[in-house]
Amino acid sequence: MTDLSRRVMLTVPILLSACSPVASEARDMAKSKILVAYFTRSGNTKVIAGTVQRDLPADLFEIQPKTPYPDDYEATVEQARIERDRGIEPPLLGTVPDFDRYGDIYLAFPIWGETAPPVIRSFLKTHDTSSKVIRPLITHGGYGLGNSLSVLKAHAPTAQIEPPFIMEADQERRTLTQVRAWLSQLAEN
Ligand SMILES: Cc1cc2nc3c(=O)[nH]c(=O)nc-3n(C[C@H](O)[C@H](O)[C@H](O)COP(=O)(O)O)c2cc1C
Fold first, then answer.
1. CA-CA distance, 115 to 83, in Å (whole number)?
2. How far apart, in whole angstroms, are the C-alpha atoms of residue 155 and residue 168?
3. CA of 80, closest atom in ligand 1
4. Where do the DSSP E strands lie in 58-164?
5. Model confidence pLDDT, tens digit, residues 110-155
6. In order of start, what are the domains of the chain with their CATH numbers?
7. Ligand 1 center to residue 3 CA distance, Å?
8. Within a 10 A sphere around the Cβ of 139, how many other Cβ atoms?
9. Nearest CA to ligand 1 atom 10
10. 105 with 134: CB under 8 angstroms?
């Protein structure tokens, strides 16, 4: 047997097995079983979600409403308040593909109106979280978690909810106040 034909004989079975359904299943199983799903407006929560996703590693999914919130902060606060008080669950732009294959869900969100943002309720409503482990990653602007954890429990009653990672982060309101104070000083001079 020539050197070349020996090499072909050795290589062909390897190539064939790589194309077989068993091999592709094995490749799928090697994909991450961990998901980081996050919602953010001003980016604080995105930094945390991205760090967790890269360090674990995990897959990353951004939770987005179908209709974006206004750019204006105060208008967003008002809309979020109405949605919270009326129990509105805004439709999402998309859902997580193949959600079934994830066991651990890191769910990252900011506190809005002393609770979880309405899209987090939408997310839990549209994804079957039974038998999942949920690890909340929560940012807030200084007023704490409010009732966000009981909202998670109510919307994911059969999930195992682990103690959250909590971090106080920049508040858009504080930034707006400082910028506006500076602008009005400019106008006075
Ligand atoms: C609509 C809205 C409502 C908020 N409500 C609260 C609140 O009730 N308590 C609080 O501590 N921070 C509140 N914040 C501040 C955010 O929770 C905080 O700045 C968070 O880190 C923002 O995360 P993000 O940059 O990922 O959007 C609110 C922010 C927005 C935009």
1. 11
2. 24
3. 1
4. 59-62, 104-110, 133-140, 160-161
5. 999 999 999 999 999 999 999 899 999 999 999 999 999 999 999 9
6. 30-188 (3.40.50.360)
7. 68
8. 23
9. 141
10. yes
